[in-house]
Amino acid sequence: MSLRITAIATLAATSLVCSLGFVAPAQARDGVNGALFGGLAAGAIVGGVVANSMNRPPVVYREVGPPPPPVVVYPECHNVREPLYDSAGYVAGHRTVRVCD
């Protein structure tokens, strides 16, 4: 933003100085004026390229959607081995049961 303000201020000052007659008429003497204006033009081009090549963060647009679902907190769980009994009441094996507090 400050680069634009500086450029506008410079352009305004230059046009004011030229319109009030403080600048002598241009004369071509041994190509000095051509070199001067060529150098100014080259400087403006290089300055524009450098100013536009500054590292700027990319613009990221994100959609505004519904809020994320609430976090569900589950109780602590652990596995327990329980005996399996047959019809006579004897232990026939074991099974694993998940128990949550």
- Mean pLDDT over all positions: 78
The ordered string of helix (H) and strand (E) elements is HHEE
What's the gyration radius in Å?
41 Å
Strand fraction equals 15-25%
Strand order of the largest sheet: 1-2
Q: What is the percent of helical residues?
A: 25-40%
Number of helices: 2
Largest sheet: 2 strands, antiparallel
Ranges where pLDDT stays below 50 over 5 or more residues in a row are none
Give short descriptive properties of this protein.
101 residues, alpha+beta, two-stranded antiparallel ribbon, signal
Q: Overview of this structure, please?
A:
There is one protein chain. This protein has helices at residues 2-19, 32-52; strands at residues 77-85, 91-100. It is α+β, with helices and mostly antiparallel strands. The two termini are 62 Å apart. The protein is rod-shaped and about 125 Å long.
Secondary structure elements and their pairing?
Blueprint: H1 2-19, H2 32-52, E1 77-85, E2 91-100
Antiparallel strand pairs: 1-2
At a glance:
By secondary structure, the protein is an alpha+beta fold. It has helices at about 1-20, 30-50, and strands at about 75-85, 90-100.
